[in-house]
Amino acid sequence: MTLTRRSVLRIGGGLLAGLHFGADPARAAEAIEIIMSGNEDGSRVWFEPIGLLVQPGQSVRWTNRDPGNSHTATAYHPDNGDHPLRIPAGASPWNSDYLLPESSFSVTLTVPGVYDYFCVPHEHAGMVGRIVVAGSSSPVAPRPGGIPEVAEKGFPRVAAILRNGRVDAR
Asked: Which residues pair with 60 in a beta bridge?
């Protein structure tokens, strides 16, 4: 095969496009922070952002910035208090345990799909969040049911997370 200027440019362009659109190892190593918050009187609690898009292998860190409450970041999974499975099959469930103010917990998500999570003491107050780990197929929200109605209503739409990269609670 004879290399022409056109074929060299085509190969070089393909390599550059692959570098641009491929996974960025430096970015995957950065933990994205989700803040646990509440208002002063404790009548409202939330995760910020409530919806987040991450790449496979990227870490997520929850930090409790609520001076008046302990919080958890707990995956919806049968291993966590017999909750329904609302993370991808084959993904590892997590439970941060109670985080006091200014404490943090991290997890690295590797399986593409939708991960729903909640705060153990505040699930009934609607303190839930959703993370979408990017992948080759279009992620689908977990099947509804088996959790409090206020929690079910609290999840942002998968399409909004994919479109915006994050959905804020307020």
From this structure: 32, 107
